[in-house]
Fold this sequence. Notes:
Number of helices: 10
Strand content: 15-25%
Helix content: 10-25%
Number of strands: 22
Number of domains: 2
Distance between the termini: 58 Å
Radius of gyration: 30 Å
Amino acid sequence: MLHLNTILKDGIALPHDHNPWVHSKSLSLDLSRDNLHVFKRFDRDDRGDLIVPVVTDYLEDDPDANALFVGIGHIGDHYAYLIPCIEIFRFFYALSSPLTKSVLTGDFLDPDRHLWDVSKSRASLTERLAFLQLRKRMLDADVRHLAIFAFVDGALKRAQEVFLFAAGHTSTGESRLVRALPPFDGKMTFKAEVVNLNQAGRVRTLITQLISCDWCLPYARIDYLRDNDGRVSSYPDENRPISGWSRPQGPKPDPVTLVEGPGNRGESPWEIEVEDISARFPRQSKIATVKLTTENSETRSGRSQPLPPRPSSDKVTTGDLISSKDMIREALLSGRRHLVLPEEEIAADADPTAADQAFLQTAELLLQMQRRGLADVQIIRVTPKIAYWRQVLLNVCKVDPDDEPPAWLFIDLERKKPRLALIASMRPEGRMRYLIDFQRKRPRECSILVLWSSDETELPLGYLAQALHACQMAKQVSLAAISDLPISWGRLKHTQPFKGIDGPERLLRRVLETPAMVA
Length: 519
């Protein structure tokens, strides 16, 4: 989409300095809803003057000229800053053809069907983390912008209003049907191309082009998945769903020749270059986006079949990419502090009472520790599958289907029952400690893993997930394989059972006295 006053030469938009009446300016604007006023091109203000003055005679009865504008109030003037609705639409909503078409065709009225999975998408302001599951036609490049409509209060309604207004005016004969407002509220700073207007001593500013905005979502990272793997294939590859975009009809037009008709003639969807998106929303573009491993994507035959992970240029990893569909392993490879978990799933094949039950004794001691007020105890979940013992949550060790599962991951000789792990935090007098106690096949088979930070404060869930995974890979209670993790750890050996009335006190004392292992 072209902005107002665009000058074309041989089909190419010329730089701004070819417009001598337009200049760049930094503007601090209040986009609160009660400070925005929508008006038509030839509407007049409270003094009877045209809000947007004209230099020459325009045909006021020409419906094509009577576009909609938004007035932004400032110091008592409701129309201190003027901006065409079509420019608001171009800047905030036209970032790719799928996103633009979704706004204009009403897909935003049912985002769960067309845009993102509402039930699976979620965000946490506390952890500054968001997760989106994109529907098939959405582009990976749009995930940051779709997160605005998914998680910002009022943004989805603004997008819906664009279509609803156009649908309600199709019978009026007007061809200018775009009525768009910014998707978010509040005060923010824009860089814009403007024209100063002076009429009867009243100075106003006409914004012809929005260049950048300093607004940003309150998240540090956005993880996302897709209903399909997001790739197209020119050959019948079962693992890569057929493209939903039709093939172009006829020869491809010369890019420098102006032609009638739509710019997108059934070709692959266009998207703004990453550099241009960064220029529009420089702070927003700094939010990390991580495409999680796609699992059980839809194939052409309609079957659910796992797909191998595809490396992404957005993703920074701390190791080589390997085939994996485990969210915990993804957290390890990406070096993430945070962990996004699906809804908990009870593992039917887990058996907390199988083999040695010393880790259940640890769970009982933790409960007593909490009841006696010795420490604030929290049971922690870091795995998709879990089990319960007397309402105590137990993590189920993940068996990777890509590899031959080692016997260490199971508690029985038949390799039917996965090993369980108790993960808990203890805070005695402000000193935070974490422990991971594994289910054992034999008494004293493995020690309790104790973890803590250098300042004895909380550890991110992602670190605990990586610690659990490292033990699984090493087949022992050891974090030597991830020595770069910024935590201290040690092993608490079972020299004697923690029995008796002083069992909780002895366990707590042993945990606090556990020495750190030196790599």
